[in-house]
Amino acid sequence: MNPIRSKSDREVLRHACFLGLAALSAIVFRRALWTVIGSSLDVDKYSHILLVAPVSAALLYLARKKVLAQVSYSKAGGFVLLLLLAAFAYASTQSDAFSESGYLSLSFLFFVSWCLAAFVCCYGVAAFRAAPFPLLFSLLMVPLPDGVLERIIAALQNGSADATCLLLQAAHIPYVRNGVVLDLPKVSIYIAEECSGIRSSMVLLLSTLVLGHLYLKRGWTQALLALAAFPLTLARNGLRIFVLSTLGMYVDPSFLSGRLHRDGGFIFFAIAFAGILLLIWLFQKLGLDPGTAPLGLPPATVRVKPAAVEEASAPVPETVYKG
User: Which of 37, 52, 154, 248 registers the highest number of CB atoms within 10 A of its CB?
Assistant: First the structure.
C-alpha cells in the first residue's frame, strides 16, 4: 500500500468525520439556525452573526499548517459531544423555564459548542491549542438574550448622550439634558435605540478582535485594544449626533432626516476604525507590543517569503571583492 495515499485517505476520512458531525449539529439545531440566519439581514442584534462564521473559517485556514501538524482523534472530544447532546435534550424538556430569546441563545450556544467539541474529537486537543482564537471566535455567533442586549443598548444610549454633551460644551452650545433627550436651542434630540449603533458596534468589536489577533502578540495589549472598542463606539455615536444636530440647527433642518442621517453611518464608523488602527500603531511604535508585522503589511500568518529574498540572504563569498 502506498503510504502517501494511505495518509491522504486518513486525512479525507478525518475531514469527512468532522463535516458529518457538523452537519448533524445543523440538523439537531435547525430551528435556532433558521431563526437567527433568517433574521440576520433585518434584525440588528443578529446582523453580525453572518460575519463571524466566514471570518472564523478564514482565520482557521490561515493557521491550517499549525493545526494539521499534529492531529489525532480524541476520546475527550467524543465524551463532550455526548454530554452536550444530553444537556440539550434536558434543556429541551425545560424550555418553558426560558424566555424565547433565552432559549434561542442557549440552543445556539449548544450548536457552536457541539462544533468545537467535534473539532477536538476529530483533530485532537493539540490541534485546538494550535489555533484557539479562530475556534473560540465562533462563540460570538451566539445571540445575546434580550435582557442582556437591552442593558447594552441602554449603556450605548447613555454613553452616546454623555459624549454628545461633551462636544456641545466644547462648542459652547447650550443644552438641557433629560436622560437620553437633549433639548438644544432650535431642536430636541432623542437618542433612540436605533441610534445606539448596536449593529456597527458589534462589527467594530469583531474587527478589533481580529486586528488584535493578526497584528499584536501580547495578550494584555490585545485585551486593551478590545476594551477600547467601547469608548470609541461612544465617541463615534456622540460625534455623529453632534454633527447632525449642529448641521440641522445652523445649516439646514433636512440634515436631521436626510441622507447623512440615514446612510452616513459608514463615515463615522471609518473614524472609529481609524482609531483602532492608530492604537495598534502606537502599541508597536512605543514598544509595548512587538507585533506580528508592521501595520500596513500582511501579518506573519499570511506572508510568504519570496525565493529571491532567501537567495539574497545567503552568505557572499569573500572572493567577490576585497577592496
Answer: 248
* 216's grid cell: 499584536
Please state, in angstroms and rounded to a whole number, the distance separating the CA atoms of residues 288 and 295.
Answer: 14
CB 36 within 8 A of CB 143: yes
E-assigned strand segments in 120-237: 176-178, 181-183, 188-190
Q: Are 104 and 49 spatial neighbours (Cβ–Cβ below 8 Å)?
A: no
138, 158, 156, 297: which is closest to 206 by C-alpha? 138
Longest CA span, the chain: 88
Task: Delimit the domains of the chain by residue range.
Answer: 3-140, 148-302
Q: What is the pLDDT of residues 266-311, one digit of tens each?
A: 888 999 999 999 999 999 988 888 877 776 666 765 554 444 444 4
Four-CA torsion 148, 149, 151, 153, nearest 10 degrees: 170
Binning the chain into helix, strand and coil, the percentages to the nearest 5 are 75, 5, 25
Rounded Cα gap, residues 187 and 174, in angstroms: 12
Q: The pTM is what?
A: 0.82
